[in-house]
Amino acid sequence: MTGTTITVIHRTTPTTNQSGAGAGRLEFQPGGTVDPLPHYVPPRETADAGYQLNLISPKSHAYLNSSAADQPAQRRVQGEQAVTVHSRDAAGRGITDGQYVRVFNERGQFIARARVTDEIAPGVVMAPMGAWTKNARGHATVNAVNPFVFADLGNAPTFSDTRVEIEPT
User: Fold this and answer.
1) CATH code, 47-168
2) Is 14 a residue whose pLDDT tops 80?
3) Mean of the per-residue pLDDT values for the chain?
4) Of 84, 112, 120, 168, which has the highest C-beta tally within 10 A?
């Protein structure tokens, strides 16, 4: 957020305000229209668009960041691009463990090897980020389907707010 101000309130005694904060503590409070209390923010993307699965794309275990993703040792540890899918979601789409699938939405697509398991929630798929496109099947990675918009607070990426569909290749 551009132009957001932060107010620093220094309390010297517990009785300087209503909260009763202890002596010498600092309170950071956003200024302007930012609500200082946490609250629910609905997802930007919903299943209404026709994409029934919510994609999360955490960091890869073998890559500190994408700069290491072209190193042979890291590529051997990480393996090729995979997508984890719940067994119920996979069965409904005719997907079996180890099969190549197309993960797609209106922004793009990528090819990944399906990892079918009950260790992920139904309706959610997971594909780690960090791989290089030159090493990926179809020369596309999970970033091909992630949104380009930033969160409303702090300009954080919104790559865990992505709806997709998957199908066998």
Assistant:
1) 2.40.40.20
2) no
3) 81
4) 112
Name the maximum alpha-carbon separation found in the chain.
Answer: 66
85's CB contacts (< 8 A; 6+ apart) are 53, 95, 101, 114, 115, 116, 117, 120, 125, 166
**Whether residue 21 has pLDDT greater than 60:** no
Q: Where in the chain is the domain with CATH 2.40.40.20?
A: 47-168
Mean pLDDT on 34-55? 82
Three-state SS for 72?
helix
- SS3 state of residue 124: strand
pTM listed for this prediction: 0.74
Phi-psi region of 52 (alpha: psi -120 to 50; beta: other; left: phi over 0): alpha
Q: List, for residues 98-122, the tens digit of each pLDDT value.
A: 999 999 999 999 999 999 999 999 9
Handedness of CA 13, 16, 18, 19 (dihedral sign): negative
Name 117's Cβ contacts closer than 8 Å, sequence gap at least 6: 84, 85, 86, 87, 97
The Cα 166–Cα 169 span in angstroms is 9
Backbone angles phi, psi at 34, to 5 degrees: -80, 125
> Are the C-beta atoms of 82 and 142 separated by less than 8 Å?
no
